[in-house]
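Quick board copy: two proteins, each given as sequence then tokens.
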Amino acid sequence: MAVAALRLLGPAARRAAGGPPCRAHRLTPADDELYQRTRLTVLEPESPNTMFIEGYSSRGFTISGDLVVGPCAVLPRTILQWNVGSYRDISHESLSLFRLLEPQIEILVLGTGDRVERLHPAMLKHMRESGIAVEVQDTPNACATFNFLTSEKRVAAAGLIPPRGTYTRV
């Protein structure tokens, strides 16, 4: 009878009573675990307003149904005109916009027009030191990469220069 009563008690009570040790797994929380609950606060629910690049032409881009003329900066929830004429105009100053964003972006995708152009290594190093990975691609691939990253719920931005080719849907 005493052994049956010890079985009904928990392992701590059995050890205190001098009973045999138990090797069973405990499936219910112990008393101290009941007071260590985790709280989760949703700061912002998922927004359907994420940017999606639908197409591009030599004049600009179609982004989430809006026509944007010329080079643009596509941010997680905003589109801005980007004051660069070609990849040669990409500088520390023109990239400062992407470093100032809150929350900070993880990845910056740069579309340099018809071809992948080489940017100065010091600029790319400065962005990496700021905690932002930079992917330099031709604009058609940069559009596809940006769409993929945002569909994966990554915090990404794009700096896009229109290619000289014709209109294409992404």
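And the next:
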Amino acid sequence: MLDQIHLLAAVTVLGVLEQAYFSLQVIYARRAYGISPPKVSGPPDFERVFRAQVNCSEYFPIFVAILWQAGLFFHQGLTAALGLLYLYSRYQYFMGYKESSSGRLAPMYFSAGVLWILIALAAVGILHFLLSHYVGINVLLFISL
């Protein structure tokens, strides 16, 4: 069983490490700009780092849930590759947003596209499982015709 989930687990751990890195960036920004918790406003440079981290954190549970569903029901290798692409695009998003608010746009759209692809793969995989398991219809046979 572990050979069916090891890539998904690795991408998940990398994602958690990325979230930790983003959190550390907020801590460093708080120190650099003298913003003590619970304050969340300050100079624009601080607010961009803070917002970038919060935005990435908001999407992370969606990413992890859909990563595992797509990996388990569709294909682990393809899903893990898309997961790495998503994590890289979120890193680019964070760094772009850190520099300027407009720097976040292209990576944001790209990461959203990757997330939608993962959602589609999960939906196809789950639909295939449900149809083949409960109805006896193999969707893959229809696709290959």
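Board note added afterward: The radius of gyration is 19 Å.
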